[in-house]
Amino acid sequence: MASYDSDYSGSNDRQYTNGEITVFWKPNKCIHATTCYKELIEVFNPRKRPWVNMNGASTEEIIRVVNLCPTEALTFKYNKNLSEQPVRQILPETENEVRVMRDGPLVIKGNFKVYGPDGTEYKRMKMVSICRCGASLQMPFCDGTHRKIGFTGK
Amino acid sequence: MNDEQTFEIHIIENGPTHIKGKFSFKDSAGNLSAEHNELFFCRCGRSKNKPFCDGSHKNQWQTPE
Ligand code: FES
């Protein structure tokens, strides 16, 4: 199936499919790490239009490279699950770590899931700061309020 | 998902952050401790045993709106 290039909701976001998976491209999330085209120029070629050629490699190879993107700029979904959240696996090398910041939040890295008090899962992230001071207005996440209230971790 | 890969953060209503799974833990001095399975971290700021929960939130703290 041919890839298509569509603009929706007035943004510059694009999506491309090979019939099996759809790759989502959010240019405003791109930090220009160049990982995608260094890994797979056959699919991700910024000099071509459309710049993503879904017929340039196997689905598995495309998924592997989408998952290397350090931001949410590239994500994918299986077409059979198009109504679900885009899939973005965290690199297996990411160490699972919980770190306490002095007089600040808990910083969590790795391949984790965060669930709210009612059991719903928050958006997948690869790093998150959880408030420890009790005063964030973005609970459960740290919003910097700990500094304002002079929180100490002692 | 097998147990090996579980790493979950559960936010408990008006209570601590419950973390379970396989993860390493670094305290604020940067000391790394071995792989943990389960820890409860204070979220209200009142624990006498920070960063861990000691139950001080009970009837004393509500998540700010
Ligand atoms: S720890 Fe940062 S806002 Fe509470």
Chart the SSEs and their pairings.
The complex is a heterodimer of chains A (154) and B (65).
Chain A: E1 14-17, E2 21-25, H1 35-39, H2 59-66, E3 74-78, E4 97-100, E5 106-109, E6 113-115, E7 127-130, H3 145-148
Antiparallel strand pairs in A: 1-2, 2-3, 4-5, 5-7
Chain B: E1 7-11, E2 17-26, E3 32-41
Bound molecules: FE2/S2 (inorganic) cluster (FES).
Uncertain residue ranges of chain A: 1-10
Indicate how many domains the architecture of chain B comprises. 1
Oligomer class = heterodimer
Q: For the largest beta sheet of chain A, what order do the strands appear in spatially?
A: 1-2-3
In short:
The complex is a heterodimer of chains A (154) and B (65). By secondary structure, chain A is an alpha+beta fold.
Structure description:
The complex is a heterodimer of chains A (154) and B (65). Chain A has 154 residues and is of the alpha+beta class. Chain A has helices at residues 35-39, 59-66, 145-148; strands spanning 14-17, 21-25, 74-78, 97-100, 106-109, 113-115, 127-130. Chain A is elongated, with a radius of gyration of 19 Å. Chain B has 65 residues and is mostly beta strands. Chain B has one domain (7-59): Ribosomal Protein L9, domain 1, CATH 3.40.5. Helices cover 0% and strands 38% of the residues of chain B. Chain B contains no helices and 3 strands. Chain B has a 3-stranded antiparallel sheet with strand order 1-2-3, with no helix packed on it. The mean pLDDT of chain B is 90. The interface between A and B is medium-sized, with 34 and 32 residues. The structure holds FE2/S2 (inorganic) cluster. Residues 104-105, 131-133, 135-136, 142-146 of chain A line the site of FE2/S2 (inorganic) cluster (FES). FE2/S2 (inorganic) cluster is lined by residues 104-105, 131-133, 135-136, 142-146 of chain A.
